[in-house]
Amino acid sequence: YRHSSQYRFWSFSKEHLREKRDMTNKLAVETIEKDLFDFKALNDLTPEELNALDTKAVPLTTEEELKLIDFYAKKVQVISQHLNLPTEIIATSISFFRKFFLENSVMQFDPKNLVHTTVFLACKAENYFISVDSFAKKAKSTRESILKYEFKLLESLKFTLLIHHPYKPLHGFFLDIQNILHGKVDLNYMGQIYDRTKKKITQALLTDAVYLYTPPQITLAVLLIEDEPLITKYLELKFADNDNDDNGNEVKRKKKNSIDLTVLLSVIKECKDVIENLQTVSTEDARKIAAKNYFCQNPKAL
Amino acid sequence: DIEPRRFTIEEELYDDPFLKDLQNKKEFIASGFRTDYVYERVLTEAFM
Amino acid sequence: EYTKEKKVGEGTYAVVYLGTKQSTGRQIAVKEIKTSEFKDGLDMSAIREVKYLQEMQHDNVIELIDIFMAYDNLNLVLEFLPTDLEVIIKDKSILFTPADIKSWMLMTLRGVHHCHRNFILHRDLKPNNLLVSPDGIIKVADFGLARAIPAPHENLTSNVVTRWYRAPELLFGARHYTSAIDIWSVGVIFAELMLRIPYLPGQNDVDQMEVTFRALGTPTDKDWPEVSSFNSYNKLQIYPPPSTFELRKRFIAASENALKFMSGMLTMNPVKRWSAIECLESEYFQEMPPPTNPSEIP
After folding, report:
1. Residue C119: enclosing H or E segment and its boundaries?
2. Using one digit for the tens of pLDDT, what is the confidence trace for A107-143?
């Protein structure tokens, strides 16, 4: 995993993530302010026009950008689900979209214009090839608008296209739990857990958990949400440092685990918190921010 | 691979209806489909 | 940072130049992806090369040094590898020994193993995709047909791998194949290195089956359960598998273990075919002669 591009290029601490977003926002604000300055200089505006600009054509804050990105990332999920794409491709689409707006501001690229391009490139990257014309038809878009930002998207992704999603780990833990908890867990129940967790993982991919934690940690966090006692029991049996010998008292385990159970549990609980506080952005909020963004780009319209 | 792997593959302990179904299909058997390769894959991804 | 000094090759989707990395003076190859030709945006082969090379850093897999955009073209900066095994096999002025072959096979299998343990199928292994570095190291290259091992239920296309190196399950049109297809290709390459001529040169897809089964025997349900369920099976000519004596006669220079090694890779039933690990751990690599040190290979 440490060799993967996902770890090398797309893993951040909370602070680093914050800095990145602030930096992306700052660069865009500077450009907007310069353009607005030039606009005012080039047009002799009346006082009320100037006032309108100062109150309505205001560059977005990082928080506002994030809301707009989350709003459209949800749209990426809905559109790719609507296109009946396999789960992993939906996940890759969301990932491509959110990464693009980690590297670029919504004030440079209107998120609306990237939605289809990210889904289209995700299909290609996951070997689920759809021609751009049939994709445009299905997505009610045009080949030009889909292809327009494909290069820019690939560049912003730092040319990393292989993403490890938490779904395969879910299958792996589904099997390993049957091994470690053999005979202690009902298989039908496990099947239900599997299905519910799989759906919840897609929600988790809309949060920053994907930058802060590894795919298996996200899987375990979502499993913890689904059934804390079961997962805690599994992890204790799997990674605890001591075994219970047959008459029940604790003995030091021979093989030292490379995983520290307490650390693992605390990481997973943190991850669980990040996943659970996913904010949904209302259409009203998004519309207001989009309007502000629009006026920043088009002061003349204002 | 340097450190000991964090899992062992216990095929007989797994009840995976999804795979059980596939591995009995003619076209899967003829293609060389192997459940242990799938187990290897998903367990590696789980413990990487 | 990178120059393009000399055009050395042109493929369907890319032009390859020799160049230099200015900051270090290192010789490099720049693969310039033609973007205009592909009406669906970025070419799938380019996407695959980028996707898989980004994930692998291994001495026996070609190194992707950098990627950049220039004048709307995607440029892959790769390590410079002056020749490949096809050139060496064809150049009869180059004499090589069983120890040289063993070295090439060891390096090739290490590269293939690295792909497989990253759950990546190469799907186009052949002598001219096994490039040789200036100090004799074999590097698996050209990931334009590669793909990640899919989810179990997914269908795969069987129209992959250059014909002469195509595994029997692909010839039958299998849709759920595994990394065993790459091992078959390595087996055919091994035979070709020993013979110095292509081992299974089919004229077309149908002839490829004929040539393959005449040389290695037609598979039956006994050794390959359900092989008869493939649509194209019942039109087949049934040939017996070659006896050890016949194989020995065909590969005179090969030791017993070398023949076992080859037969392990050219096992018809993909389930029984050796994996990269079984190949690497085989007797063939442990018996004399040891593999030649790559820098001493001609």
Report:
1. none
2. 999 999 999 999 999 999 999 989 999 999 999 999 9
pLDDT digits (tens, 9 = 90+) for C147-189: 999 899 899 999 999 999 999 999 999 999 999 999 999 999 9
Is C124 tagged catalytic? yes
Give B-chain residues touching A216 at CB under 8 angstroms: 45-48
Inter-chain contact B31–C179, Cβ cutoff 8 Å? no
ipTM here: 0.94
pLDDT of A79-98, one tens digit each? 999 999 999 999 999 999 99
Question: Strand, coil or helix: what is A19?
Answer: helix
Nearest chain A Cα distance for residue B18, angstroms: 10
Nearest-Cα distance to chain C for A161, in Å, is 5
Residues of A in contact with C40 (CB under 8 A): 124, 129, 131-132
**Strand stretches in chain A, DSSP E:** 242-244, 250-252
Q: Is the whole-model pTM more than 0.90? A: yes
- List Cβ<8 Å contacts ≥24 apart for A15-23: A17/A102, A17/A208, A17/A211, A17/A212, A20/A102, A21/A62, A21/A65, A21/A66, A21/A102, A22/A62
A258 interface with C at CB cutoff 8 Å: no
DSSP string of C223-269, one letter each residue: TSTTGGGSGGGGGPPP-PPPPHHHHHHHTTT--HHHHHHHHHHT-SS
Residue C7 burial (CB count, 10 A): 12
Residue C298 confidence class, pLDDT cut points 50, 70, 90: confident
